[in-house]
Structures are given as C-alpha cells and as structure tokens.
Amino acid sequence: MSHSTVPRSGAEAKTDEETAVASSGAAGPQGEQPSGKLSIRLRFRRDRTLILMTLPAVLLLLVFNYIPIFGNVVAFQDYDPYLSDNGFIAMFESPWVGFEQFERIFQDSGFWHAVQNTFVLFSLQLVLFFPIPILLALVINSVIRPRVRAVAQAIMYLPHFFSWVLVVTVFQQIFGGAGIIAQTLRQHGHNGFDLMTDPGIFKFLVTAEGVWKDAGWGIIVFLAALSAVSNDLYEAAAMDGAGRWRRMWHITLPALRPVIALLLVLRVGDALTVGFEQLLLQRDSVGPGASEVLDTYVWWNGIRNQDFSYAAAAGLIKGVVGLALVLTANKVAHLMGEQGVYKK
Predict the structure, then answer these.
(1) Which of 124, 140, 117 is nearest to 218 (CA)?
(2) Which ranges constitute the DSSP H helices of the chain?
(3) pTM (2 decimals)?
(4) Of 141, 128, 106, 93, whose CA–CA distance to 214 is shortest?
(5) Per-residue buried b or exposed e for 256-292, using 16+ beta carbons within 10 Å of the residue's own CB
(6) End-to-end CA separation in angstroms for the chain
(7) Nearest one of 102, 120, 121, 122 to 111, comparing CA atoms
(8) Is the alpha carbon torsion for 305, 310, 313, 317 positive or negative?
(9) What sign does the CA torsion over 260, 261, 264, 266 have?
(10) What is the crossing angle of helices 202-227 and 253-269, to 10°?
(11) What is the pLDDT along the chain (344 residues), one digit of tens a residue?
(12) What's the CA gap between 131 and 124, in Å, rounded?
C-alpha cells in the first residue's frame, strides 16, 4: 500500500537538516553510540548568530580592558611621553628602572593613608550598604499588590540613572550649609550645620550617597532570584504551620544565598574601588585627608603631577591586591558550599 508524501515547510526541513547534521557528527563509526560532542565547525554553524551578536562586546572588552594591560610596563620605567610624538613609541625609548617606583610607593606615607581610607570606606559600605538591597528586596517581595510593588521598585531604581554630579548636588541642597535643613533650623532660631564639609562624618556621607544611588540596582538582582522560588514551597510551609518569619528563614534566604555569595565575592574583589568620581567631586570640600583613596591617589599623581610611572605602579599594586581578594573570597565561598564566581 502506497503512502502519500506530505510536503514540509522550509523551517521544518531546515530543522531536520540541522538535526541530521548534528546526529551524524555526534555518531561514531560502525553504529557506535553518539558521544554527545560536536565539532567546532558544527558548533560554530549552530551558534553563529549568537557569536556575531556578542562579537562587538568582545571587541570593546579587548580594546578597552585587555590591550591597555600592556601599558603597565611603564611601572618599571621612568616613562617620559615627550621622548616621542607617539606615546606608545615613548614606552620603548624610556629607560628601565626596575622596582624603583614600587620602592617610592612603599616609602610614601600618602600612599598608606590612601590605603587606610580605602579600606575604611569599603568596610563601612560592606556593613551598611551591602545588606540594604537584600532587606528592600524582601520587603518589596512581600507586597501582595503587583502595581504597588512595581511603583516602589521603579522609585528605588530611578536614582541609579543619576550621575554623581547630580547626586552630590542633591545632597548639597539638603545637607549643605545653605541646604534646606540648615535654612529651616536658622528660621526657627537654631544654629545651622554643613555636613558636606565635615571631614569627620564624610565616610558616612559617602556611604549614604551610595545607598541612595545604587541600592535599587541590587534590588533587581535579588528580586530576580526570588522570582525563581516556587509558591508551592511557601504554601506547603504555611500548611505545616510555619509563620512568615520561618518561611523567610527556611525558604527565602536559602534561595538568595547563592546570589548573596556571588555578589559578596565580586564586592570584595572591588574593595579597592570605592567610588572615584564621587570622591573626586567632594575632595576640595573636605580635603584630601578624609577623601583620598587609591583611585584619587593614582589620578592625582598620574594626571595632575604627570608622574605616569609612579601612578602606574600604584595602579598595578591595586590590581594585584584586588585579584588576590577575589581568589580568597571565592575560596571562602567554596568552603561554604557555594559556587562563587567560578566552580572548583
């Protein structure tokens, strides 16, 4: 009995062809079981669209992040960009001085003061800033009405798009000597204040600015992790008599634990970067004694004083220490049973 052939669409035929190609490439000779591995040619043919989409991002990363790494060679030179019309050619004509720049750095009290300020600001931001997005995500996630939840999330996320110039201006208009609070106090017969020029509380002010600007960004990450938690778990726990706090402790927080570990590792690796533009904008108002960190120290010596080799050596030290912190924090995450940035 003959069977009629049903014509197939072009998309279905193409899918069958790719499946056949993949199967033929994965199957072994003489009827062996397929190994499940595709050749590079077949994988490129399958993923060529995704590869072309990511190619511009890879090129940008290569040009602005990896190629400049070779410029660290000036940390071992007495680099003078005026030896040639081309700054790159001047790297080959500058004399080598070995570790002389690093010896200067370790003998500079200003460098150690910048290191101290950097770690103080990092510690405050880690203790006061890092838990706030987690707490706000838990609060927003507990809101039942979707519209209220969306409005609250949008309001908290909006300051992330503000520049640091605008953020510092807003705080100046509120907490500055001519700000709203100080003027209101003077109108009622009290002495005003100027928190923006007080070096003693500057580190807390910087942390508050960071919380207001970037807490909304962290909320999105944690809400995305909470959205993957099945409601059946909450319903089963409620039927077993678990209250709101027990459900949060045994269901919500364990769901956030991998994300918290990952972000904590990344935050520790970024410990020596505590906000260059933010601190540079307020450097003159509180002085370098309170605002000098490694980033501003490198900028001041490299750009303002044009001591490029000295600044490159300081930046290289910062990069090496940051890498060591990432590896250490990731190892701690592995010991705690989490994946961290990469697997073991």
Answers:
(1) 140
(2) 10-26, 40-61, 87-93, 100-106, 109-124, 131-142, 146-157, 164-175, 180-187, 202-227, 231-239, 244-247, 253-269, 276-281, 283-286, 288-291, 294-299, 308-335
(3) 0.75
(4) 128
(5) beebbbbbbbebbbebbebbeebbbbbbebbebebbb
(6) 60
(7) 102
(8) negative
(9) negative
(10) 140
(11) 444 444 454 444 444 444 544 444 444 444 444 556 778 888 888 888 998 999 999 999 999 988 888 888 999 988 888 888 887 888 888 899 989 999 999 999 989 999 999 999 988 888 888 888 888 888 887 776 778 888 888 888 888 888 999 999 999 998 888 888 888 888 888 887 888 888 888 889 998 998 899 888 888 888 888 887 877 787 788 888 887 788 888 888 888 888 888 888 888 877 788 878 888 888 888 888 888 898 889 998 888 888 899 999 998 998 888 888 888 888 888 887 777 777 76
(12) 11
The two tokens of residue 94 are: 């500058």
Residue with tokens 């019309």: 85
Q: What is the token pair recorded at 239?
A: 């039927």
